[in-house]
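CO-FOLDING WORKSHEET

Operator: S.A.
Ligand of interest: NAP
Run index: 328
Mode: holo prediction, single chain
Checklist:
[x] sequence pasted
[x] SMILES validated
[ ] output reviewed
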Amino acid sequence: MKFNEFGKTGLRVSEIGFGGSRIGGVFADRNSSREALNVLRKALDSGITFYDTADMYSQGESESLIGKAFHGRREQVIIATKGGYCLPARRNLIKRIKPLIRPIVQALGLKRARLPGGMSGALSQDFSPSYLTKALEASLKRLQTDYIDLYQLHSPGVPFMQSDAFGEALQTLEKLKTQGKLRFYGIGTEVPEEAPFCLSAPGISSVQLGFGLLDLQALDHGTLADAAARGVAVIARGCFGGGLLKASLDEAQLKAATPKWQRILALRSLSSSMGRSVLDVAFQFCRGTPAVSVTLLGMRLEDHLRDNLRYLEAPPLNAGEYAALRQL
Ligand SMILES: NC(=O)c1ccc[n+]([C@@H]2O[C@H](COP(=O)([O-])OP(=O)(O)OC[C@H]3O[C@@H](n4cnc5c(N)ncnc54)[C@H](OP(=O)(O)O)[C@@H]3O)[C@@H](O)[C@H]2O)c1
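OUTPUT RECEIVED:
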């Protein structure tokens, strides 16, 4: 495993980070908790030290699984979590009755995208000092730890970052840092326009943004260069396009799923001319971009981990290959 500097924090992080948004939850198989614990532990045994989660992933179950998996090995991992989204009442109810509804969801074969709208409830956000403090305490409990390595504001959005409340949120994080409840703090973004506001925020150590072969804006717009110049660590997510780069999707499925389908087909043919799979090339592209400290891969299954470790062993792109992908 190669380890990278994490901005100016002095932390060194594995170049692959475990994306924890898809572990746990009502849509997971019956054995999924066992499988998730197994994958998490094997990931650490394989040298992956960076784990990204959020309090709202799987209504808190993602954090709980990470806490359980690394109980007794806390100092070996870097845990990055997020706060700021409030679980609406309906989702809170789902959280409490999850053991009861999971078998029903499975028996009916329901998938996340087919969840009746009324069941999910709209998400709201709260970055007030009292909410963030309470959310962080709850995360500490689920993660079975007394400190969080990296606490991220979860997609605060431009209007919030232009308001006075943003300053208050940052002061709260600074205070929690002084209390030793978090070591560093950063911001997770939803869209590229948010990144410049994050980078100019005082005290932040990292920015998490969408970056990869399906999303080159952070590179094209100079965000990555700006982050590097400021010593802010970049956490890249969406390396596999949230699953869109999977080889199993046929052309009709791609057309239905994304307006970027033609680009995906072009990436497939360019990767195959390099004698490599698209996922391998997608990972090599992120790891070959110097400003990226850690590339999150949204793992769920042992097969994902096995494949990702294989990509890690594969040779990096040469300059010509990187340029060809960049120009596509
Ligand atoms: N706003 C935010 O802060 C934010 C937003 C989104 C994500 N994130 C973070 O970023 C992480 C990555 O999320 P992402 O959705 O962008 O995921 P991604 O890594 O781009 O894609 C993950 C998906 O790719 C598919 N896949 C195929 N082969 C794989 C392999 N070898 N390894 C892993 N996945 C493989 C899987 O689909 P199948 O499961 O169908 O096989 C998986 O669900 C999340 O877990 C979360 O930690 C943060």
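REVIEW:
The chain has a mean pLDDT of 91.
Residues 3-87+123-246+276-318 form a domain with the TIM Barrel fold (CATH 3.20.20.100).
[x] output reviewed
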